[in-house]
Amino acid sequence: xxxxxxxxxxxxxxxxxxxxxxxxxxxxxxxxxxxxxxxxxxxxxxxxxxxxxxxxxxxxxxxxxxxxxxxxxxxxxxxxxxxxxxxxxxxxxxxxxxxxxxxxxxxxxxxxxxxxxxxxxxxxxxxxxxxxxxxxxxxxxxxxxxxxxxxxxxxxxxxxxxxxxxxxxxxxxxxxxxxxxxxxxxxxxxxxxxxxxxxxxxxxxxxxxxxxxxxxxxxxxxxxxxxxxxxxxxxxxxxxxxxxxxxxxxxxxxxxxxxxxxxxxxxxxxxxxxxxxxxxxxxxxxxxxxxxxxxxxxxxxxxxxxxxxxxxxxxxxxxxxxxxxxxxxxxxxxxxxxxxxxxxxxxxxxxxxxxxxxxxxxxxxxxxxxxxxxxxxxxxxxxxxxxxxxxxxxxxxxxxxxxxxxxxxxxxxxxxxxxxxxxxxxxxxxxxxxxxxxxxxxxxxxxxxxxxxxxxxxxxxxxxxxxxxxxxxxxxxxxxxxxxxxxxxxxxxxxxxxxxxxxxxxxxxxxxxxxxxxxxxxxxxxxxxxxxxxxxxxxxxxxxxxxxxxxxxxxxxxxx
Length: 560
Prior knowledge:
560 residues, alpha+beta
């Protein structure tokens, strides 16, 4: 301790009393391990021991900037204040308080403090505070309490009645199911003697096992009793001793209702033959399924196949013994090479994920040609829904007929599309709102728009405005099934007017609901222009003839 600090402490004491006080106080705290602080009646610090600084981290200079209450934890201020105020009114009284105080480094420590009121004492003239740091003790105490509560919470939620009894057969611990069984609250059952819980026959039945467990022998026994509703209840009780250096201090007890277990065992035994019959039926159902089916265990091993699987294997040279039973489907799929490798690897990954619960379902199609024909199959993989074990069910369905039909349809569609695309007439498909759903190249050429610019647009977006009213009238006719070819005018992207003949055909579903139309569009702009020019020429010729001053005679000569 520096001389200046010593001097400050001495000056503080001189304020509190005589120089004799200084000597007494110095002698009192010189070798003190606990912290000692002197407070005046305003609870300001008069003097502190060196150990006080060591415990709290506050130097005398820094500590003097704060009152005693300022450093108390907010939750403890009221207790500290009320205790000290009461102490000030009781000269010579002592008050013990455990509270939290702010350490210089910014965290709170627990103090066990004893305050004694020596304000009226001529030799001291202060409140003497003796304190020590009990933070570690408090933390350990909190952990112990938390652990005890943790254990209580766990045991309260177990479906087993748990208790602990001392050698005098007094209850020292019981979980909630145990207390509830005997109609006690958790706190009320503590200290209760076993005789108060068990009555007559029940206590007599337990007496022998209790005597044995107190001799250090674990006891397991089963009892039955009839409930109020007349049903028989089975109870299994277990006692095991709590020993310390071979001396029994008490014993643990668990009581478990095993009625469901006993009933289940009886049910299992009575249904054993029925289960065997069910397995036979299940196998028959599996064999009756047309698709090829195999069942895998949780590691991917094939454990069962059906009749269709075996027949397919026999007819296609399946090289594995027992038609694959006992082989690992995942490993076989992983090792596939060539054109089938990608699909096989996808199947292997899907099986792994489905068994692990990471995937619910998997389906894919794959070709599997024989030397004489093209074939396609569809594989379905789903989890094996069994509480007893995990696994997967794999089903292979022959879809060759469907694929052949699809391929023919695709070829037909492609041929039809080529015809449509090369047609010299525009093809325009519209939905029920008259939005374009398809146009061929010729239609795009007529309107001078790209296919992307036409699809989704209304047909009247391209219509010559004076013709708009007729569009809606004709649509209503088509909804009634009346399809009338008509002449109309469209405006092209460049602003040019084109005259077209439209031959519409309404599209209806099976219920007769209007779904749109298919229009064949013929550009007659050039023809219309030629007709107009011819009409103009004829009109001009007629005017010349009508105004001529000479007679005009037209001869028609028939030559033989």
